[in-house]
């Protein structure tokens, strides 16, 4: 349950703040083990798919909360599953602590 709370807080923080291009360190909660910043942008639109391991009920719930949170704030309904021809997707996965 704590993982869900942290994940939702992180997602809402991302949508609350305006995207600015800078070389400053990112304020992410929870702090990821590894982050790579690249130039460019990721446009969140109807072509973006949310990918998740269908066999993991915890991740399925997180995906539903994410999709609903985006819809509530933007009116944009993201799809779940494989990306369309553009190949844009957000992957939600759990990895073991190292």
Give a short synopsis of this structure.
This protein has 98 residues and is of the alpha/beta class.
Q: What would you note in describing this structure?
A:
It is a single chain. The chain has 98 residues and is an alpha/beta fold. The chain is 34% helix and 10% strand. The chain contains 2 helices and 3 strands; from the N terminus they run αβαββ. It has helices at residues 2-16, 57-74; strands at 49-52, 79-80, 89-92. The protein has a 3-stranded parallel sheet, with helices on one face. Helix 1 runs parallel beside helix 2. The longest helix has 18 residues, at 57-74. It is globular and about 30 Å long.
Topology readout:
Blueprint: H1 2-16, E1 49-52, H2 57-74, E2 79-80, E3 89-92
Helix pairs in contact: 1-2
Percent helix, as a range, is 25-40%
Beta strands, count: 3
Low-confidence stretches: 17-23
Largest sheet: 3 strands, parallel
What is the alpha-carbon Rg in Å? 14 Å
Number of helices: 2
Structural category: alpha/beta
Query: Approximately how much beta-strand content do the residues carry?
Result: 5-15%
Task: Calculate the terminal CA-CA distance, rounded to whole Å.
Answer: 20 Å
Shape: globular
Q: Return the average pLDDT rounded to an integer.
A: 76
Task: Tell me the strand order in the biggest sheet.
Answer: 2-1-3
Order of helices and strands: HEHEE
